[in-house]
């Protein structure tokens, strides 16, 4: 509630539940929509409207175990949670081609540690991210859509 002083951890189930869109143990549905790294980065609001930022302890992504196991954990977790961390822990909002460069560097660092992270993008786009995500009108619209208190 607006008058509450209790502390909160942000964990919206729409984009930060990394198991969504992968099926469901109990039902035959998909249990939501799969969110890729770009959706997580662009749509997570660090300071939601109507929430006193002094109440926010932090934020988290969740990957529930109903449809995840040791074979899918690393592939489902690392790159999307890295995009989330980039959004939460930096007040600078990167253009998509800049974010891709950061995520690719993280991806290869994880590979060097024998972590089975999913690829961020194609090899061509790894080397030429500005061609895959031109920093033009789409970026301007994204910047207008993302409003963050700092």
From TrEMBL:
<dbReference type="InterPro" id="IPR017853">
    <property type="entry name" value="GH"/>
</dbReference>
<dbReference type="GO" id="GO:0004563">
    <property type="term" value="F:beta-N-acetylhexosaminidase activity"/>
</dbReference>
<comment type="similarity">
    <text>Belongs to the glycosyl hydrolase 20 family.</text>
</comment>
<dbReference type="GO" id="GO:0016020">
    <property type="term" value="C:membrane"/>
</dbReference>
<feature type="domain" description="Glycoside hydrolase family 20 catalytic">
    <location>
        <begin position="6"/>
        <end position="91"/>
    </location>
</feature>
<dbReference type="Pfam" id="PF00728">
    <property type="entry name" value="Glyco_hydro_20"/>
</dbReference>
<dbReference type="InterPro" id="IPR025705">
    <property type="entry name" value="Beta_hexosaminidase_sua/sub"/>
</dbReference>
<dbReference type="GO" id="GO:0030203">
    <property type="term" value="P:glycosaminoglycan metabolic process"/>
</dbReference>
<dbReference type="InterPro" id="IPR015883">
    <property type="entry name" value="Glyco_hydro_20_cat"/>
</dbReference>
<keyword id="KW-0378">Hydrolase</keyword>
<protein>
    <recommendedName>
        <fullName>beta-N-acetylhexosaminidase</fullName>
        <ecNumber>3.2.1.52</ecNumber>
    </recommendedName>
</protein>
<keyword id="KW-0732">Signal</keyword>
<dbReference type="GO" id="GO:0005975">
    <property type="term" value="P:carbohydrate metabolic process"/>
</dbReference>
